Amino acid sequence: MGWRWLVAIGCVLAAGVAQAAPTVWYQDWDGIRKAAATVKTLETSFVQTRKLKILTKPLVSRGVMAYRRPNDLRWEYQSPLATLLLVHGGNVQRLIKHGNTWVPDSSAKLQAMKIVLGEINLWLDGNFSASRTFRPELRPAGKGLPAHVELLPLDPSLGKIISRIAIIFGERPGTVSAIDIFEEGEGVTHIAFEEPRFDMPIPDARFEAPR
Amino acid sequence: MSDVRTLALALVMLCVSCAHVPPLSPIPNGRQADTVARCRQAFPRQPWRATHTIFATLPFGHNGALIGVTAAGPEGLHAILLSAEGITLYDGVQAVGADGRAHLKVQRAVSPFDRPSFAASLMADVGNAFLPPRGEPSDVGRNAEGEIACRWTPPGGETTDIELTADGPIRLRTLRNLHLTRQIEFLGTPQEGFFPEVRLTVPGAGGYTLDMTLVDHE
Hints:
The complex is a heterodimer. By secondary structure, chain A is α+β, with helices and mostly antiparallel strands. The longest helix of chain A has 19 residues. Chain B folds into two domains: 75 residues, no CATH class; 97 residues, no CATH class. The radius of gyration of chain B is 19 Å and the shape is globular. In chain B, a hairpin with a 5-residue loop joins strand 6 and strand 7. The relative contact order of chain B is 0.18. Chain B is an alpha+beta fold. Chain B has three helices and twelve strands; from the N terminus they run H-H-E-E-E-E-E-H-E-E-E-E-E-E-E. Chains A and B meet through helix 3 of A and strand 1, strand 2, strand 3 and strand 12 of B.
């Protein structure tokens, strides 16, 4: 009989230990939104890696991102292809660097990427469920994968281009450490953010087209 | 009267369709083999793989930018277009079959890159810019501008001229009858057949220019 008491005490202790484990900020949607709201501004560099079967080395792109709550965004690729997406005051601009001049990107650009870039503000706001384009699923860490939100396209035609997107949480509450964009088939684009700086003042000029 | 005009127009059209590119002036026989070898320096030795950024100047003042990954070898010519964000917009392989004809297999293409005419034009652009014309040149000599050139004139096909300066290949032009259909300028000092910049121009109302900057090659 005595051993049963021991087991019961053991179970209670184990439960106590489990309850004492620190709660993570990305446990539920409400926690994610509250944590994201604590980030007022963010500036970070990023490295984008794209593996292709025909290349022995991955294609590496580098850039910077600036975000200012509630809706200002600068997403800039600096190499190898210099492009700039600016969201400021409700206006969206896409520019390409040609020589030393920034010119408007007026091509019939892939609609899917416009949609994805249009969603970045929602992600930074922690407001994944407000998306009309993707169905979010919260995935806790496990099976060798970090905790992340998986975004699944609602429109099947978009799904033929982007099968899913994984937004991987950072350690600091309300932050993202990486984004993986999965194409139908085997293609994956990995974007890793580096050296983020939080809550520093960012002037309006960072969200305006270069002159 | 109308019949006369129709006949005159038909004769003009016939003359244009029969028109030939002005012949090249001969150069000394001893220089021909060396000239052909220098013309072939416009192209990298296969197999190769390369990555370029592409800036497109399109009709009506439109611009666009992409990343192009190309490979050439025994399996044919493989061309991939990526958006800056790394998404595959187009992936096609063109190989020459047992019948001697080029066969194109589009492995992936998303709108607006999924039009059959786009695939054919893209492979023609990439092929012209990075693959040497098939076979031996039909002529070697000086063109009307005084530049030394190698000329390929396949039966029923376009004429391709590769033009040289003292430093090497400078330009490739394709002509159908007397009309320029494509011009490729080789800019900068090449490394293993890869020029730092290649500018492709397709003239005409629906024409465009592609400025291709070398990022990497293997």
